[in-house]
Request: fold
Amino acid sequence: METNKERVYVFDTTLRDGEQSPGCSLNQREKLAVAHQLARLGVDIMEAGFPISSPGDFDSVRRISEEVGARPNAPTIAGLSRAREKDITVCADAVRAATKPRIHTFIATSAIHMEHKLKMTPEQVVRQSVEMVTLAKSFVDDVEFSLEDAGRTDWTFMVEIVEATIAAGATTINIPDTVGYCQPAQFAAQIRHLRENCPNIAEAIIAVHCHNDLGLAVANTLAAVEEGARQVECTVNGIGERAGNASLEEIVMNLKTRPDYFKVDTQIRTEELYRTSRLICDLTGSPVQPNKAIVGANAFAHEAGIHQDGVLKHSATYEIMTPESVGWTGEGLILGKHSGRHAFRKRVESLGYELAPEEIDSAFDRFKILCDKKKEVFEEDLIALVDDIFFKSVATWELAYLAVNSGTDAIPTATVKLRRGDEEIAEAAQGDGPVDAAFKAIERAIGEDVELHDYRLESVTGGRDALGRVMVALTRAGSTHQVKGRAVHTDVVTASALAYITAMNHLQVQEGLAEAREGETAGV
Ligand code: KIV
Ligand code: ZN
Reply:
């Protein structure tokens, strides 16, 4: 291993900038699972959320700080806060349990934002930034200051505010291209200008945070690294507002694949990239496109005969990195129907899951049923099955029975029986198709009036006997509080019904929790 390389710190903001984008919201158990996986991946800093934004966000940042940030060799846990007193004190409280807590505070610095959004003069912006960095510093040593919309900020003003906030104690200075407007050579020049003109810049790490509106987030990030940026802010699969953020896996694999060019290192365990990407796809219900670099299904597929021939003769003819280096193991066959519970548990643990004994039992029972139904069981199937159990944190209503009738000349009809403890309710409904009929019957049985916002169905692996994975997102009628439910089953109507019931259960539990917490954290 080379040791003379400079380190680039990887700051992951999947749980903050990524999670706040439409359709990507996660519940607390899901956020914790992502946080554990990010720690396994080896990110240096994890932005766990924006604590002032909601009681739920505050709770997630606090729990991630306690459960992930306090472990040995844990990453730094950062919370976001505007440059406002209340944001910073709440953020300090949320990250307190972490061994390495960071407060990340920001204010807009472009003329257009200062004049129209903040309605503040540049002098006021500098004064407030210095005061808030000083306040943050009274809680933690590690303070990051971001110049929102830095990509459209006047360079002389940038240098002035950076110098003042470093003098006030900022240890990381972040230059975001908030609107994804910059071009690589221009952004590189901006970082160079900062390095060459800010007298105390050596006292802080320069970070960059690029959005992808013009498809240049990764290119801009790498151009900045060439000019001395040593913290890269990114998200798994590039999820985030609008066109997203710079993609973590693409930045990391560029740096790893071209050490001759960049001469820097990250501490990311790249073999965890594929699994991390899959987890984000599964939890958000947003798959990556097949040709997505690094983690897309086709990223390592060689279809053209001339390429296949070359790869068979020598893999490096067409492969600049190996699938194994990003953790892509293919659809390797896993345990069969004769495997025992012990081997099964070991396999589940090797995939990074920490399941309770009763969850292992339930996963094992379902695995055996699956082995009877499916000729071949793949690792992807196992992950889908275990995810299904792991993330089904609340099982208020359960599906006891489902029958559907549909066809070219039949009116689609579904009959369901749901169970909650000793209570059982049966209902029937007609719909536009078997899935719609099942959803209507479930709504009647539970007595909820809900609106369906998203329904996605995909097959976990190839083949006619593949598991179908369904994700639904819904709200209670008239409410904006969106919840998701996921399920897998070889029968796609059953998978749909199970996902719908899971979402209904989440709706009831989360709305109850939100009401309970409103009292506790009033004023946040
Ligand atoms: O894009 C942006 O400017 C941000 C800041 C809050 C860092 O996300
Ligand atoms: Zn951002």
